[in-house]
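can u pls check wat happens w/ NAP
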Amino acid sequence: MKTITLGNNGPEVSRLGLGCMGMSDFYTGHGTDEAGSIATIHRALELGVTFFDTAEIYGPFTNEELVGRALGGRRDEVVLATKFGFIQHLGDGSRGLDGRPENARLALEGSLKRLGTDYIDIFYQHRMDPKVPIEDTVGALAEFVAEGKIRHIGLSEAAPETIRRAQAVHPIAALQTEYSLWSRDPEAEILPTVRELGIGFVPYSPLGRGFLTGTIRSLDQLDEKDFRRSNPRFEGENLEANIRIVEQVDAVARELDAKPGQVALAWLMAQGDDIAPIPGTKRISYLEENVAADALTLSDAQLAQLDGVAAPQGDRYPDMSSVNR
Ligand SMILES: NC(=O)c1ccc[n+]([C@@H]2O[C@H](COP(=O)([O-])OP(=O)(O)OC[C@H]3O[C@@H](n4cnc5c(N)ncnc54)[C@H](OP(=O)(O)O)[C@@H]3O)[C@@H](O)[C@H]2O)c1
């Protein structure tokens, strides 16, 4: 597996990371096969994946515990990323944005404990808190860096102006934002901004929450509580319309004797050497397929064909007010 360095100051990571969220939350089957999830993390290590992504809100908490257990004695071989800001530790511990420095510190202490480590490689603010100036939050994160408790600072779904303000306080190693063949909004302003500032880019949901693999054709395939049931792109007419995107990706995949999900990942990796996507899975078979995308080369004609896939129908979240803020 190739490696890249995230931005000017970030860590060196495998070109493809592993998103661990779906092992414990959000998607159908989460939490049902802990042994399978741990085996997937171990297989990822064997295949050269060194970049693992979790967050305190996944579960909540259980995903960090799982990742911590799975990585065990191999902690120093990996770049471990987690996120805070969705849990109000200063109140009753309920969900809600909280970017206050005291909340960030309580979150960090919890994450360190659950992950079984004394440092986190990238500590991301999961979403910006409009009640707290970004300078205050990043100021606290800079203290954690000085204390050696985190190595790098990350932001997730921050808007260009927020990224600039944050970078003025302390170097930001990575921005984690949704980016894939059906979520191309970062191309307009966000990618140029992070490139100008020397910040790495980590596309989340690079497989379109599984949709771009072509395996989701109907909501009936998803459990009642699966997050995608409330995602506008997966609803009724939108889902039906969006299937043509998968068909266009599949046309390229057939030329290469590959899978559409692999083509979606290869297209993302072709967008720049500063991009490290983190496809998520809890299964070894999917992981192996995704990692194999690292060896897939798309021709200029295929890249152009993929650039032309239909725009998606439906927003990527039911409420878009908390992203790009
Ligand atoms: N910063 C943020 O706000 C944010 C938001 C969302 C996600 N994330 C992070 O990004 C990571 C990846 O995003 P994601 O998990 O939302 O979406 P994703 O990687 O686009 O897709 C994951 C889904 O695709 C399925 N899948 C994976 N590989 C497959 C394959 N080869 N063939 C068929 N299906 C396949 C998985 O199934 P199985 O579950 O059955 O394996 C899962 O349902 C997450 O794990 C999380 O760490 C961050």
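The domain at 13-211+271-296 is CATH 3.20.20.100 (TIM Barrel).
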